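Before relying on records like the one below, remember that each one covers exactly one chain. Contacts with other chains, cofactors or solvent are not represented anywhere in the record.
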Amino acid sequence: MLELSPNFLILIFAASLDRLIGDPAHWLHPVQVMGWFISQFTDLVLIKDPASSTCIPRFSPLIMKMVGTVLGTSMILGSGIIAWLIVLVAAKIHPIFAIAVSSIFLAACFAGRSLRDAAESVLAVLQTGNIEKARQELSRYVGRDTEDLTELEILRAVLETVTENAIDAVTSPLFYALIGSALFDYGGVVLAIAYKASSTLDSMVGYREAPYTDLGWFSAKTDDVLTWLPCRLTVITLALLSGKPIYVWQICDRDAKQDPSPNSGWSECVYAAILRVQLGGANRYRGLIKYKPLLGDAIEAIAAPKISHALKLTRICFLAWLSLAIGIAIFFVN
């Protein structure tokens, strides 16, 4: 008789919840809680300059790095420990209740449905021909300025968002959930939540620009390190799924290393190679133009079907990892 441990039942239920309902708008999300704590902390160590309406560090660069290290360490470890304690309390009430709570927590770490909904919301508006409204819809999901983007630039922005976040928001949380599930009871939830804290820190304070240069140094480096392995495994998986692994890897090896980020270049480039499109180029942030390296070859134009294909690739990669892990668990347990 086939048996699955509660850990892998939690994985299956969480994946199903993310697929079916995603992140309900009116539910309190763990990332919102993490974001609130990070904001409260940064308000203590940054001073708002009334003359320029910008923030400046309260302490010296060395002290700000130390403070940032405390912030990053406490958020990552604290988030994982708190999630574990909540689940343990739930287990004291009833094992099924613990599985339910764990599944909801873990589903919140998987953003596959949310990523798909965000992309499709922009594409739906774009298909109506209302480019101004499409720019406004896009601005909800990207950091770049969207006020004067052309239709092609909107499509590129959506595809870049989908491909970059595929690692941070989908496969990396799954990777740590699988590792944790193999290590200890409810470990998948603990490690996935801890990784989500690292990713949230990176998105909020892990900037190279002031005033976060020193405060976010530890958070940015930690997220780079934690994402490195799942990113490479995702690239390898997608390359194999494409049926042309050597070609895809050659494109990634040629272009991805040009990106200053050790992970996002690889994440975007593997999709660009498979889809036969080119990503990167000029983007504007708060009025300043920044250039990202070109990734892939512009063999075909970026269009809505390409974005749908990218989302499908992410979903297949997710299911392939989950199925392989469950298959291995069943083999060894039974």
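The chain has twelve helices and four strands.
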